[in-house]
Amino acid sequence: MVDRPIAFQELLQLTALGIQPGSIGFATLTLESDRFVCVREEVNGAKQVVIIDMLDPNNVVRRPISAESAIMHLDDKVIALRAQRQLQIFNIEQKAKVRAHLMHEDVTFWKWISPTTIGIVTETAVYHWTCYAPSSQPDAQTSDTPVKVFDRHASLAGNQIINYRVTPDEKWLVLVGISSNTTNPAGFKVKGAMQLYSKERGVSQPIEGHAASFAEIRLEGASDDTKLFTFAVRTATGAKLHVVEIDHQANLPAYAKKAVDVFFPPEATNDFPVAMQVSKRYGIVYLVTKYGFIHLYDLESGACIYMNRISGETMFTTCEHRATSGIIGINRKGQVLSVTVDEEVMIPYILSTLNNTELAIRIASRGGLPGADDLFQRQFAQLFQSGDYSGAAKVAAGSPRGILRTSQTIDMFKGVPVQQGQLSPILQYFGILLERGKLNKYESLELARPVLVQGRKQLLEKWLKEDKASTLIFT
């Protein structure tokens, strides 16, 4: 039997770094990104903010700050502080105040939604405050004042807001809250309520759900990514993971919406989804539950790949683990845990345990994972020998780590006789490669020769400008 397909490890133990157990919880600890852990605690009657840099965790920074909430920037040593309605942004390294603003309403939740912007939730509305020009975007435009984006939906009244997420272009936004189910004795104990908002349409949709994320995926034959919204909910009758397309583009294939069961063991009667992260590299949804279970789903098909318990304690905060395309989370014991795909095991696991060749090929292609190389080679050979050069070209183009994108493959396509009135197989191959992205050095050189012979240097310059061809052809 193949080992579990996840790489799971404890990155830190916060109590070993001097964090008090009573300070480890949703109200006092924030994890805005995989870079910093920020904790508010009281030591000998003195209030402090503790900052742990994940790149230098043993160098714990403590500051005498009595804020009601503190959130570290995603990447820079910059902290946002809230005391009642007063908001302040400080650059820790420069010891300088960056921005300050006095809200006219109480803030119930806030978080960094991008390197420049904080999302601010009040009892009545959601605001965006573009308050900081990060080191990665020093020329970014900033503002002294938060801007109202939308009003809160009535379905979230009285909810504890636990998350707020936006798409990279900030056109779609989702607010997530939970509340105790006191009105329906037959209902699930904890009710999840979400408000999905389209900025372009100015329309909100209330949805029952506990955890949500936005995602992008490149579907077979598509020239661009498809945008998706995925969310999970548990009710008295069961639990589901839903994936739906948003902002469909007419030139892209349609994504068929998915609704798949989320399994909870009999002993986890009160367990429910609390967090979700989606790995774009692997096209995998990581779903975490309150009781410490993790579920992995294939984003494209909705297939459940794996589930297991990773923590005996409540996981109360998570974020993307950018270094591994995985997920990082903290439990009430103070364990900082990471889960990602085990690159050596994932594909053999899907083939042997799930017996799903199609899924193995898709994830191997998307993530460049080993374990399915022979499947790609056999499939390529079968299609090529049968004369399906277009199909063979697609297999070669999608092969993991480019194992079939070699000079030998180019020679095979060049050696096929061209049928009168039809596009040559080698040009079909290059066309499919260009649709998928950048050419490697062999492909760039091979394509450059006939283009330059025909005096079409401008076409080559166009590909270079679009980052389709390797600059090696000019060196």
TrEMBL record:
Any Pfam family the entry gives: Clathrin_propel
GO molecular function list: clathrin light chain binding; structural molecule activity
GO cellular component, one term: cytosol
GO biological process, one term: intracellular protein transport
Domain Clathrin heavy chain linker core motif: 347-366
PANTHER family on file: CLATHRIN HEAVY CHAIN, CLATHRIN HEAVY CHAIN RELATED
Protein name: Clathrin heavy chain
Native source species: Rhodotorula toruloides
